[in-house]
Amino acid sequence: MPLVMIALLFVAMYFMMIRPQQKRRRELEQMQSSLTAGDEVVTIGGLYGTVAAVDDETVTLEVAPGVRVRYAKPAIARVNNRAQGATSSGPVIKE
User: Fold this and answer.
1) CA dihedral sign, ordered 69, 31, 35, 95
2) Which of 8, 22, 35, 80 has its CA 20 to 30 A from that of 86?
């Protein structure tokens, strides 16, 4: 009987902790892979910018007129506004 209780505990932990975390990670990866030029984004450090260019591993953000910085794609936390004409099923947050 104690082995059944331990197994049920692990199953409950999987559905309450591990599975939701995996879902959030997949959604974030999809959002990061669907970035296009013109998207307004926020980095994990809180920097707001507009995507100027995207390649396989990096994103170039324009944070002020003429000021561009490069970030790794995983550093993008969220997209505030999608570029006109861009379609994606990823999370879009409008402020």
Assistant:
1) negative
2) 22
